[in-house]
Design a protein that fits this description.
Length: 218
């Protein structure tokens, strides 16, 4: 029986591209491009650091990838605009259905497990409308190894003090859901973008367009 619903944060509960508005405020007509490059480099940088065993906290990675994104898109980042855009990452918008669905899952232990460092993920969840629904917030910074390495999921499992089969893990990120499936969690891929499944020998247990499908697990 599943006892804990464990959610990835970025792209699963929170829309990382809701920073476009703040990007466009500082750099008119470049917000979409900056947001896209920012996210791409953020993922690229933490994957590289994990492979090279040169861990740095996610807030540093996010700041470095922002600087790259602005340079790549011909935007002059100042100290003021940098601070404003980093602050925007602490106030990302929830996807439309998230609040309603989480309120219906209150018979389960609801956990956020993110690669985001505590200085990013704690205020993001704490300031959001779901703060009262979330029982625990876990960060890969606790082990200083990023998902999707097995050690990261093992860390979350040990923190929750549950068996693998008692955990349902949700993510919109294919690399994350593959990692959790490989580790042995029950997995639900929240395929918000309608992506094609990976040609890989490890697949998610179930796939949903959004969080509404989780009501099947009540």
């Amino acid at each position: 029986m599943v006892k804990a619903f464990v959610f990835d944060a970025y792209g699963t509960l929170f829309d990382v591209h809701s920073v476009k508005e703040e990007c466009n405020k500082w750099f008119p007509e470049k917000g979409d491009a900056i947001s896209t490059t920012w996210r791409e480099k953020q993922l690229n940088y933490f994957f590289l650091r994990q492979l090279m065993e040169r861990y740095e906290p996610f807030d540093q990675i996010t700041r470095e990838s922002l600087k790259y994104a602005c340079k790549a898109n011909g935007a002059q980042l100042t100290e003021e605009s940098e601070q404003a855009l980093m602050e925007a990452y602490l106030n990302l918008e929830l996807f439309e259905e998230v609040g309603e669905i989480l309120s219906q899952l209150n018979d389960k232990r609801l956990v956020v497990f993110s690669n985001g460092s505590p200085g990013m993920i704690d205020p993001l969840v704490g300031r959001s409308d779901i703060s009262g629904n979330i029982d625990e917030v876990l960060s890969a910074d606790g082990i200083k190894q990023y998902k999707p390495v097995p050690a990261a999921y093992y860390y979350a499992q040990q923190e929750l003090e549950l068996e693998k089969e008692e955990i349902l893990f949700m993510s919109s990120n294919p690399w994350d859901i593959t990692g959790a499936s490989s580790y042995g969690f029950h997995t639900a891929w929240i395929n918000r973008k309608g992506l094609q499944r990976e040609e890989f020998d490890i697949q998610p247990e179930v796939e949903y367009d959004d969080l509404k499908g989780l009501l099947e697990w009540k």
